[in-house]
Structure formats: C-alpha cells, structure tokens
Design brief:
By secondary structure, this protein is of the alpha+beta class. The chain has 9 helices and 13 strands. It has a domain of 180 residues: 2-Layer Sandwich (Alpha-Beta Plaits), CATH 3.30.70. 22% of the residues lie in helices and 18% in strands. A hairpin with a 7-residue loop joins strand 2 and strand 3.
C-alpha cells in the first residue's frame, strides 16, 4: 500500500462559496476543456449525444432543494439552524438526505448548488489503499494525483473515497480525478494571474478561490475564518484540504414584503414603454 507524507509545507486547495455558486457548470466545462487536452487527458466521453452518455468529469455540480421543514427548525435544534438538502426534483419521501450543512439557512424555496471534486485530503484513504502506488500525495504541496502508468484500474481508491471524487475511464482502464490543474498552476509560460485552476478562472460569480491553506495569511485561510468555512463530512477524519463556505441567511419573502417600501407607480411614458417592450 502507498504511504502518505508525514506533512506538507503547502496545502493547496479550493475554497468554494455555496452562497454565491449559481450552478452554471462553467467550472465543470472549463475543467473538462483544459484537462481533455492537457497532461492528464484525454477525458473520455462515450455515447456523448446518445440516450445513455458516459464520460469522465473531474468536477461535477449537483443541485439540491432545501427541506425547509428541517432547515428552519434545525436538525440540531432551532439554535443551530442546520439545513438538510435534497436532490432537486425529489421529495422527502423518495430521496435520501444528501448532505447536512451547519450554516445559517433561513429561506423559503432555496436551492443549493454543490460543486464536487477531489478534496485533496490530508489523510487520503484513496492513497493508502492503492496497491501499486498509482495514487499518491505530493510532499511539496499536498496535491493528490494518479500515475496512469501504475494504475491497474482495480477501483479500490474509488471505494475508499467517501466523496465520490474518483472517475473510472472505461476506455483507458484507469482511475482519474481532479489534479488542481497542476500542469497549469506551475506553468511559467502563463501570466501569473492565469496560474490558477481552470475552474477558478471560469467561475462568473467568484464562488471558487484557490490558495494555500497552510498559510494562515492567505486569502483562502482568511475567508475560511471569516465565514466559518467547513470540511465536508469531517467526522470521517480524512481532513479535506478543500473547504466550503455555507450559505448566508436569506430574508423571508413575508419579511421582505413588510420591510421593503412599496414601489412607486411608473410614469405614463414608462408604462407605455414597458408594455411596448413586453410584446
């Protein structure tokens, strides 16, 4: 089995803001584009336009609808106000609870978009379970990678990963995963501002940040402290490097109607223009 480094001087990872993620999938598409032609490509697609498409995606975005009965009451009591979220299109009777957030969720009909990729855990079970050393954690920056030449496609790493971050390439017979665009962030032929993961550069709302979590003065470390950044499933003990910022409190619709001043009627000319443009 493969050993983990005792420690790493850097802990490079992503900080994802669930408050500002709009579920546009720009991160997933840009990741696919960069890595398909990069050092860790290709990212195979099978029957891409057929009835049952299958492909390798390093980054996936899942959308959920809040179970408001539990979110407003709180799964840990009304003081904690934790939110339980369900996959969109499914009700409480038919869908399992997908994830619980301890964040301050207080909204009606709120949707949550959850990007998922490798979390580059400090105690990465996907590495220690690998029988060939194909999965490994870089000692210089903590990035978890896969050496395709050593991978035998046994899928032990995917079974060990509780986050579902491993992707099996059926065409090549090897496991693949997010690389934090390691072939980009150290590429000195790129401008310094472009040496970031493709998903970070593509996000239109700034919901993704890249940095060194080992540096307490880095932007990602500061934001994590300020916004109470969370580990995903911390009880498992894998110590993910990537962090998630929980959604901020939302104003209820009823409260908004009572606190917002009534809108003044439009002048006749603007009403006419509004009708004209609405045709």
């Amino acid at each position: 089995m493969t050993a983990l480094p005792a420690s790493t001087p850097k802990k490079l990872g992503l900080l994802i803001d669930l408050d500002t993620c709009v579920g546009c999938h720009a991160c997933a598409v840009s990741c696919k584009e960069w890595n398909d032609g990069g050092q860790f490509g290709p990212l195979t697609d099978l029957d891409a336009r057929g009835a049952d498409p299958l492909g390798v995606w390093f980054n996936r975005v899942h959308s959920y609808t809040l179970d408001m009965d539990r979110a407003l009451g709180g799964v840990d009591g009304p003081e904690h106000r934790g939110g339980t979220v369900l996959p969109q299109g499914q009700d409480k009777a038919s869908a399992p609870v997908a994830m619980t957030l301890g964040g301050p969720i207080d909204a009606e009909g709120m949707s949550l978009h959850f990007p998922r990729s490798c979390l580059h855990c400090e105690n990465a079970a996907c590495v220690t379970v690998c029988p060939t050393g194909a999965s490994y954690k870089r000692p210089e920056d903590g990035i978890v990678l896969v050496d395709y030449d050593k991978c035998i496609g046994c899928k032990l790493c995917s079974w060990a990963c509780p986050y579902g971050a491993r992707e099996y390439d059926q065409q090549q017979g090897v496991m693949k995963k997010c690389t934090l665009c390691v072939d980009r962030i150290y590429n000195e032929t790129l401008a310094e501002e472009d040496r970031q993961p493709a998903c970070v550069l593509a996000c239109p709302t700034g919901a993704r940040m890249f940095g060194d979590f080992a540096d307490p003065d880095s932007e990602v470390s500061r934001r994590t402290r300020e916004r109470d950044g969370r580990d995903l499933m911390p009880e498992l003990g894998y110590a993910p490097t990537n962090k998630y910022l929980p959604p901020r409190p939302r104003q209820r619709c009823a409260d908004a109607q009572t606190t917002q001043p009534a809108a003044e009627p439009l002048p006749p000319v603007l009403r006419w223009l509004d009708r004209l443009l609405s045709r």
